[in-house]
Specification:
Layout (H helix, E strand, L loop, with lengths): L10 H23 L2 H8 L3 H8 L2 H23 L5 H18 L2 H11 L4 H21 L7 E3 L5 E5 L4 E5 L4
Antiparallel strand pairs: 1-2, 2-3
Helix pairs in contact: 1-2, 1-4, 1-6, 4-5, 4-6, 4-7
């Protein structure tokens, strides 16, 4: 009889599992209400190892926010590939709506990141996520610095590149 052993995960795989669990916990409970113990348990690691990977609850929250922005802008870029102006904007709107329909945790995480912006470190990450990545997307897809368009899918993208701000809403949810 052979004892079955669990396959050992790499540090990067454990980090990804923690971020996946954090997306759920932070999205459901927010920065203040989330439990790092619950995140660690959901990821199959110990809480001390979670802190070894991320340092603090805030660093984990920030990594989770950055992951949400990266995923969102990656989907925007893929959807608008080869498009410019209004067609690019509409494609981004459809991609965003599909993303949050497929995985509503992403929208909840976004909302929780806004709610936590009273912390200056978190606010800086949110501003940076909207500002820099949003301006990059604007330039790649032929959108001007101040764009307000109503897309075919009922979403609104508002950009204020001069202030580094942008908000994407999909009111049809």
């Amino acid at each position: 009889m052979h004892a079955q052993t669990a396959e050992r995960k790499t540090a990067e795989e454990r980090r990804a599992a923690v971020l996946e669990a954090a997306l759920t916990e932070f999205g459901d409970r927010g920065f203040e209400g989330a439990s790092t113990d619950a995140i660690a348990r959901a990821a199959g690691i110990s809480q001390p190892y979670l802190f070894r990977l991320f340092g603090s609850k805030k660093e984990l929250f920030i990594a989770s926010i950055e992951g949400c922005f990266a995923e969102t802008y990656s989907r925007f870029d893929e959807a608008a590939k080869g498009l410019e102006g209004e067609p690019a904007l509409e494609a981004m709107g459809r991609a965003y709506k599909a993303m949050i329909a497929d995985d509503p945790r992403r929208l909840r995480e976004q909302m929780q990141s806004y709610a936590a912006c009273d912390d200056p470190d978190i606010a800086a990450v949110v501003r940076r996520g909207f500002g820099l990545r949003g301006r990059d997307a604007d330039q790649r897809h032929g959108l001007d610095g101040c764009t307000r368009r109503r897309g075919a899918v009922g979403g609104v993208l508002h950009r204020r590149a001069d202030e580094g701000l942008g908000v994407f809403f999909s009111p049809a949810l």
